Amino acid sequence: MLDSDVVEHFFEDVDIAKLVDPQTKFFTAILGGPAEFADLRLAAAHAQLNVSHAHFDEIVTLLNQTLSDADFTLEDLDTTLAAVKARWSIIVRYYYAITGYQLTAYSVHQCRHLHCRG
Q1: CA–CA separation, 100 and 98 (whole Å)
Q2: Which of 40, 72, 93, 105 is most solvent-facing, going by the fewest CB within 10 Å?
Q3: What is the pTM of this model?
Q4: How many structural domains compose the chain?
């Protein structure tokens, strides 16, 4: 993702080491592991990023390539990509503009305070 002209700007001022834990929890949760990762936490993490359809599609493409290169089984690859694609409406900013749904400051604060478990 850091080498992608489409999405690299999202990571310019990000401490990549701090992304490892939440990303690990997210992927563990969607693969049925013991970790939990609430959609509200995912929404809060992406709320101010203005992720577009093109950004989302690039992330899915890069994720597919990365997991394929890591020898994910076809079943785990399909499960992971389906789970990510199912969260399109949480991540892509365009959704909020069309529906009028707004992630409120309170829900973002609540999510951070509660660490968005479950």
Answers
A1: 6
A2: 105
A3: 0.72
A4: 1
In a domain, 15, yes or no: no
Domain assignment of residue 65, given as a range: 34-114
| 20 DSSP assignment | H
List, in sequence order, every residue forming a beta bridge with 51; answer none if it has no partner: 92
The model's pLDDT over 9-33, given as tens digits with 9 standing for 90+, comes to: 888 888 889 988 988 898 888 888 8
| Mean per-residue pLDDT over the chain, rounded | 79
The two tokens of residue 38 are 């609430």
d(CA 2, CA 99): 31
Distance (Å, whole) CA 64 – CA 93: 22
Domain presence at residue 24: no
Is 82 part of any domain?
yes
Residue 46 lies in a domain: yes
